[in-house]
Known about the structure:
Elements: E1 7-11, E2 18-22, E3 28-31, E4 34-37, H1 38-41, E5 49-51, E6 57-61, H2 65-71, H3 81-90, E7 98-102, H4 108-117, E8 122-127, H5 130-143, E9 149-153, E10 165-170, H6 179-185, E11 186-196, H7 199-211, E12 215-221, E13 246-251, H8 265-274, H9 281-292
Parallel strand pairs: 7-8, 7-10, 8-9, 10-11
Antiparallel strand pairs: 1-2, 1-6, 3-4, 5-6, 11-13, 12-13
Binding site for S-adenosyl-L-methionine: 106-109, 127, 171
Subunit structure: Homotetramer composed of a dimer of dimers.
InterPro entries: SAM-dependent_MTases_sf (IPR029063), TRM61_C (IPR049470), tRNA_MeTrfase_Gcd14 (IPR014816)
Amino acid sequence: MIQAGDLVFIWNPKKGDSFLVKVQPGQSQGTHFGQIKHADLMEHDYGEGLRTPKGEVYFLLRPTLGEYTRRLKRQTQIVFPKEAGFIIEHLNIFPGCTVVECGTGSGSLCCTFAHFVGDTGKVCTYDRREEFSALARKNAEKWGVAHRIEFNVRSLDEGFKERGADAVFLDVPTPWDYIDKAYEALAPGNHLGILVPTTNQISETLRALQEFGFADVQVVEIMLRYFKTEPNRIRPEDMMIGHTGYLIFAVKTLPLPEIKAEESPESSCAEAETEPSALPKCEAQAGDAAADAPSAVKGPCI
């Protein structure tokens, strides 16, 4: 049965109306078809339908992470689910890993990272503004992942505290100014992700990535288009989720070792003079001949 404190996604099949609510006894959710009391939700289980006072049915569904992050309370632009899933795969986020993030904002991506690192992993997130960090913490608590997150109110000018991180993500206005900070925090061979909204920011970032020797650099933009689900008239929805940002991915590599200069012919001759046993065969034979015949003139070796 649904319990107090649970998150419930309430969906109506007639109009597609939906609400994401946290169950609190004594509260109610208004809809186009009447009020739904939270106490009534606690008399049902996920997957069941509940009728409103006007007789309309709302199904009680388990919320997805995508629905939650899309609807969470925000004071900033968020990373949308269409980018978040791509980021998770391309940064290779796994249970137990350590993710370092700058640009906590409202905590959308922060919650996503924390969801996937599990209780054995950790997300270290940074934002210079206290109010953003506080809101992100509340959003993470609502989804139940705040205990996996270390919130830092700190300017990235001071750098990250972490070293050897499994992944680093930057969502800041001038990421090219902080590639060095990301490089310091990231373990060699692991991935850096960056989100920027404009193409001129891509150019500046690419130059900085080249300067620090990052490899396998990729830039991608993701478009998302839903389709109507009426079997007799399947077609795209009238509106789609277009540009929300450009994603940049790169891998930290270590500097190449310096190439030793090749030995010059002059140095080889010098070594040969000091080590008779290392003389070319022709010179050695000429030396033997000279010893046998002192009056002989030493000629060129042909």
